[in-house]
Amino acid sequence: MPRFWKKKTKPSSVAREQDILQQAPPQKAPLLTSRRIGIHTSSAGGVQNAAERAYRLGCNTLQIFSSSPRQWKASKPNLSQCDEMKKLREQYDLNPLVIHTNYLVNLASTTPLFLQKSIEAFRGEVERALLLSANYLVLHPGSFRGADREAGLLQTAAAIAAATKDLNLEKGGLTILIENTAGAQYSLGASFEQVAEILDHLRGLVPVGACIDTCHTHVAGYDIVSEKGMQETLAHLDETIGLKNVRVWHSNDAKAARGSKLDRHQQLGKGTIGIEPFRRLLNDPRLVHAAFIAETPIYEPGDDMRTVEILKSLISKTKS
Length: 320
Ligand SMILES: [Zn+2]
Ligand SMILES: [Zn+2]
Known about the structure:
CATH superfamily: Divalent-metal-dependent TIM barrel enzymes
CATH class: Alpha Beta
Bound molecules: zinc ion
Shape: globular
Strand order of the largest sheet: 1-10-7-6-5-4-3-2
Number of domains: 1
């Protein structure tokens, strides 16, 4: 599981003096780029605050949690806050809005009670995403301890179908994105083939796509560091999931080595991936439709803004 929210300065507990909302608003609009760039943003004080924070950080897309990522209990978002969020997103052109599912949900669970709880919680995630007019809801495929991988993949797909029954995602403009994972023991989705298999099971039932996390891809063993490796990995991704189906790139550097299966996010350019692979991704004409969203640790106040600035600085001005 990613650890970006567990660092010293949790986004959810940003000290008041560090919170960008407590500072004077920017004098002029932040410079936006031809790519959709964002960072996982705190919703502290209400979901509409996430939109204001993202704008002030210089983003034109954002990811949020719609409830506490480590609690089962979730309250419905307040409708006036949803309206305010919608208004701010229009005003600032913040698109897409990505919601990351709670980390407790495991739709591959082999324990019937836990599975039922996960399906109910995921249905709540979809309902909240619809209320918030989110474009994407990101989900980890789950952990299949006690079963075989094939059964796990099938069950995750069946559980997604069950959780979304009678909810009109198409009408709400909501697509579920399956995220590739680091490949720790029993976790599903460390290979592109496994993500593709879940997508195949769900096509026609619910709008689906993929979210590719660069840290997970790297620690799962794919080479994205060398230029040749990156091209091979993208070719493989295209053959399995399809590059056009990758709607979000979680743009995270990694603390651990390639192939280590250790999911520890690092700030861009300070980890085992380095900065060049991000420059390649951001300037690849096959990926212009995707949003690039960081989930990197915040050690010092301002790290989130610096991360957004780094991503924006990598986009070549001469390319489309
Ligand atoms: Zn994730
Ligand atoms: Zn991620």
